[in-house]
Specification:
Largest sheet: 13 strands, parallel
Number of helices: 21
Shape: elongated
Helix content: 40-55%
Distance between the termini: 15 Å
Number of strands: 13
Structural class: alpha/beta
Amino acid sequence: MVLSLVSLCAREVVSDHSSSPCWLRWLPRELYRPLLEAAFTGCRPLAVGELAQRWPERALRVGGRREQGQTAPNRLCIQALLLAVVRGLSDQRSALQVLDLCGLQGDEGGIGNPMGGWSLTVALCTMVVQARPGAQKAQRREERERKKFSALERQRNVKREREQRKRGKELNGEEANTSNRDLVINDRERMLSSGVLGEEEFIKGVRRRMEIERKRGSAETSVAGNGKDNEEKDVNSDVLVHVRADLFVNARSWERVRVALSTMGPLKLQCRYLRVEEISISSIRTLLELLPHQDLLGVDIRYSSLGVAGLAELLPLISTFPALSSLRLHYCNLDFRRDHPGQEEILKDLSQGLAQLQQLRRLSLTALRLPGQLRVLLSSLPQPLEILELPYLSLSPADLAYLSCSHHASTLQQVDLSENRLDEVTLPSIRRLLCQASSSLQHLSLSGCSLTDGLLGLLLPSLGVCSALKSLGFALNPLSKAGLLDLVRTAVRMPSLRHLLYPNPLEDYQPGLPDLPSSAQLLDWPLDIATDINMTSNQLNKVLIESGRSDLFLTCDLLNYDKDLVD
């Protein structure tokens, strides 16, 4: 990455904190952004705090999608940013109204000591709760200063009147008295017209005026009504800064998040994506009821024993968020069994709840054990999906047959069918699905699908027509070295493909592996140390060189593979 001259100069400026009093005083507003970026890059928390406290624009965005090789902001810099935002509430130089921290979280313990999503959520909630008493102190301080200023003005006016009366007594004659009265009247009118002293202040005094204003405010509030819209407007009228972020909530942080969302103060917490883990249905309901309805884009529920009935109970509440486009359910124990009474009715309620999600574009269902029910779930969605993730779902042939002919097939951009066993019966449905999505599909994962050399040979022609495919996951499939080479030769003929996650060939494993091993066996079985593993990599790279595809990245590293790094 080539840095601009402005970025290079900004790094030099923020590197010396002792010089900040010199340049902060004369800093133009268009240089705040490059200086703040340089402070984050160089891990300069003091510079981050000083810039954020007097931020000259209405919005400040920190986070978002990072480029390859770019690390998340340092934990100290994020803490300095949050403290500076609170201090900026009482700083007249700050124009900040919206703080956008969506996507700011990094991996806990990663390079550069970033702040993970769980820690960031706790820090944000603490900031929101602590800002309220600080704002109340500042308000009381301003009120004392206003009272003091009003008292000084009143004393000054009274002293001026006394001097005018004393001067009038010293003058002799009726003409002098008349001119003195005119002078007093004119001086009073001049003070009223200039706004130095209002009519009400002059007659009743400052304390009496404050009582009148307090009664007037309470009367206006009672007239406004008790509707929900009016309450939201009243709450937002007291908000100085709206804080947008992705919230990560578990059993330990749930209470703190609930308090922060319930707090009315100068900072208002808003959520873009909500991720919850290991909390009950009632706690999830409470969070959804507290969140602002206009901002939530996605809900991610993990490791919570919802059950089909619990999810059917949550869906009507989730549907009240008009912009919600993503729903992800991972290991939520949606075990559907026809032999249990009432299951068919519950599944019908679940289908009706999904039908209310008007803007849903991404649906992720991981290990939910709903074999044979894909038609019931997907057919009720009003809009075609763009991202569909169904790993560990035990999909039946009927499920895959429906998916290949559904109204979602032609619009899918990302499909994950990992750990669903494919065979000669289900392979025609997969080929039909690939043909339907050939012009839109960008990311495909078929890892752990028990694809042998024979099945791969039947699948490759359909795979080759996917002209928009950027990443392909094929790990943990029992392929020989010959089958792997066929896969790579097909991949190099796909011009859009940038990442290929390939499996280790069967020849690279130690002896004793079954003829048709499962994905779990391939994952646990040790590789043969006597075999030169680099030989396989060299053969694959030779195919890349011969085809001139230096832009195609091949890897067998399942743990560090990330399809999101593909442009």
